[in-house]
Amino acid sequence: MQNFSSDIEFREAFKLRLKQFALRVIKLYQALPKSGEAQVIGKQLLRCATSVAANYRASCRARSGKEFYSKLSIVVEEADETLFWLELLLDAELFTKNKLNPIMSESLEILKIVSTARKNTKIK
After folding, report:
1. Of 2, 36, 37, 48, which has the most beta carbons under 10 Å away?
2. Are 49 and 82 in contact (CB under 8 A)?
3. Taking the model in full, what pTM does it have?
4. Fold assignment, 7-120
5. Is 93 left (phi over 0), alpha (psi -120 to 50) or beta?
6. Alpha-carbon gap, residue 41 to 43, rounded angstroms
7. Is residue 121 within 8 Å of 69, Cβ to Cβ?
8. pLDDT tens-place string over residues 46-71
């Protein structure tokens, strides 16, 4: 775990981490089978994983505590949905467990981080 000297430093590092995660999901989407069901699930996964990164970035620009909380709530929902689509790819046997485990672990860790952040956010 990294040691961050400031909240701003953490936010910048986490924005980069989420962008890298979105890029990993794009690569995964490109490697999916071309079957109809794989493409439908893949597009859903692509939408929500990229939304996690975009909405976290927007939350960092929030003008108030309420706006921050609201944007962070969207990030939590999208992160949870990302994990759902990854689980569905696994359960439908469209990808092997070995290939999906690392990205699923990262997705779960992201979900835990943003859920905790939202829980600890105080709305004034």
Report:
1. 48
2. yes
3. 0.90
4. de novo design (two linked rop proteins) (1.20.1440)
5. left
6. 6
7. yes
8. 999 999 999 999 999 999 989 999 99
Q: Which two tokens stand for residue 3?
A: 């040691």
Q: Which residue has the tokens 């290939």?
A: 99
> Domain segments of the chain: what residues?
7-120
Tell me the three-class secondary structure of the chain, residue by residue: CCCCCCHHHHHHHHHHHHHHHHHHHHHHHHHCCCCHHHHHHHHHHHHHHHHHHHHHHHHCCCCCHHHHHHHHHHHHHHHHHHHHHHHHHHHCCCCCHHHHHHHHHHHHHHHHHHHHHHHHCCCC
Q: 12: which 2 tokens?
A: 């910048």
How many Cα atoms are found within 13 Å in the side-chain-facing hemisphere of 14?
26
